[in-house]
Amino acid sequence: MTEVDPVEAETERSNERTADIDERSTLGILTALHNEDQLVAPAVGLVLEDLVSLVDAAVESYRRGGTIHYFGAGTSGRLGVMDGAELPPTFSVEPGRVVAHIAGGARAMTEAVEGIEDDAALGAADAAGVGDGDVAIGLTASGRTPYVLGALEAARSAGAFTAIVSAGTDIGAPTDVSIYIRTGPEAIAGSTRLKAGTAQKLIINSFSTALMILLGKTYGNLMVDMAPTNSKLRGRAHALLEEATGADPLECAAAFSAADGNVKVALVTLLADVDPVRASQTLDIVDGHVKQALKQLVTDRHERTDSGRKEET
């Protein structure tokens, strides 16, 4: 006889606000779903202090050369894969620095392979590449998915910083950070691709975006470390340079070309009036932070001026 695990997660309970959803009009159904969605963002807001700890740990890990790992099954796993896939073109993240693992592998991205989420040993096996100093993030709507818990246990044993992100019940998983978003019963009981999935997406989007900002991959709120790999992105890069510097389109295009398509280098050359080589060298010194590079170049310029005055006297 197949073993049945009693489900106690809040996401599995019947939602009294939508008990008659199958009797409503199309607009009534959509309104009910929309009303439930409105509860997600406030719930996420309540766990931001917990998220701070995860982001700060990830920044430290990444700067030391560590890897960020997502582990999830079903909807949660797909959200992790999607986030990881979007970081290289958006922020020029090097291959292998943010890795998403989904129970069932690539097939599970387009097919339901839900039964495999019960395999804790598979989670541990998928976490074999996690090492000391890495960060492992478990994404689980219920908070108790065996695949995810197996991966986190293996990652923790390897010396990684671990975190769990869930909309389910806190079962006391032994992680460094536990982020439980209280989204409550779903509009359709147990359909965690709804509020629970939305909450997890908000969390990992905020996590990875904050991580990239702290690593110096933006200038203000502009994406200055994107990889301009197609016509649309090259156009975006030109528009970004025009907005950030106030220079005319031809000047921005020339700077972009001279910087070999590196938006940050082009931006510093325009704002600090230096050549691309100097801009690139200064960015390397300050770990790629544009504003810090600009401050460094101003400091260097003042020091050279002061030195020249001393020589004259």
Give the tags:
7 strands; globular; Helicase, Ruva Protein, domain 3; 313 residues; alpha/beta; Rossmann fold; five-stranded parallel β-sheet
Descriptive report:
The chain has helices at residues 26-37, 40-45, 48-63, 74-91, 120-126, 146-157, 195-214, 231-245, 249-258, 263-272, 276-285, 290-312; strands at 68-72, 98-102, 135-139, 161-166, 177-180, 218-219, 222-223. The protein is an alpha/beta fold and 313 residues long. It has twelve helices and seven strands. The chain folds into two domains: 10-214, Rossmann fold, CATH 3.40.50.10490; 219-312, Orthogonal Bundle (Helicase, Ruva Protein, domain 3).
Quick structural overview:
The protein contains twelve helices and seven strands. It has 313 residues and is an alpha/beta fold.
How many strands, what sense, and barrel or not for the largest sheet?
5 strands, parallel
Which CATH top level class of the largest domain fits?
Alpha Beta
- How many E-type strands? 7
What is the gyration radius calculated from CA atoms? Answer: 24 Å
Within CATH, the superfamily of the largest domain carries the name Glucose-6-phosphate isomerase like protein, domain 1
Question: How big a fraction of the residues is strand?
Answer: 5-15%
What is the tally of helical segments?
12
Poorly predicted ranges: none
Oligomer: single chain
Share of residues in helices = 40-55%
Give me the secondary-structure category.
alpha/beta
The neighbouring-strand order within the major sheet is 2-1-3-4-5
